[in-house]
Amino acid sequence: MNQADIPPPDRDPPPHYDPTWVSFDVFGTLISVREGSYAAFQSILDDCGGSHVNLRDFWEFWEHRNISHYWEPYRSYRDICTLSLEESFTHYGLHGDSALIERYFDAFPGFPLYPDVEATLARVGERRRLAIVSNIDDDLLARTRLPSGVALACTAERARGYKPDGSLFRYLIRETGAPLGRILHAGQSQFTDLVGGKPLGLTIAWINRRGVALDPAVPRPDVILDDVASLLPLIT
Description:
Blueprint: E1 21-25, H1 33-47, H2 55-70, H3 77-91, H4 102-106, H5 117-124, E2 129-134, H6 138-142, E3 150-155, H7 156-159, H8 167-176, E4 183-187, H9 190-197, E5 203-207, E6 223-225, H10 232-235
Parallel strand pairs: 1-2, 1-4, 2-3, 4-5, 5-6
């Protein structure tokens, strides 16, 4: 038998799901929040003598502090972002006014949708109901460009809690009224989407747009995808 006659190794077939509801994380999954907010954060650094600080490192530290505060008793996303900016200034030895975080909030209307989002959600919405699940305040979500067809918006403000401890996902489950097995959630954050949703029994597609490594300490997703368009063969 020559090489051409050797059959390929067995491979698991791709999963297929039949959800009633497909929910999506917003910032980082549907919307390019990092790229959309870097200019605001650079202006903050520049105005507090931090032009020498690596912008992306500063942003990631600030976001890490946000996620840490999501575990605490509920406070608004605005308040968390403000506190995290204060902590980021301290960490980097900067002296700045935490009220400068308003520049980040002012940038929300300009945050771009990823190119695959509108067409993908339009296809998904032909047969499934669409929800969004976001660690956000209602007024900030209202400033944000969203794809059409969303039937349910789940925010931290409405749930009075965030994703990591499950509060926001329990709100999703309650509001859809669907069995766990009929909800598919797609999200980019392993430390909020996976940590908060998998222990509740949700099926989760990790949308790993940035190609980062999966932390061994977080629950494994049901499937790992490069973008939301990659969902289509799994649910249509």
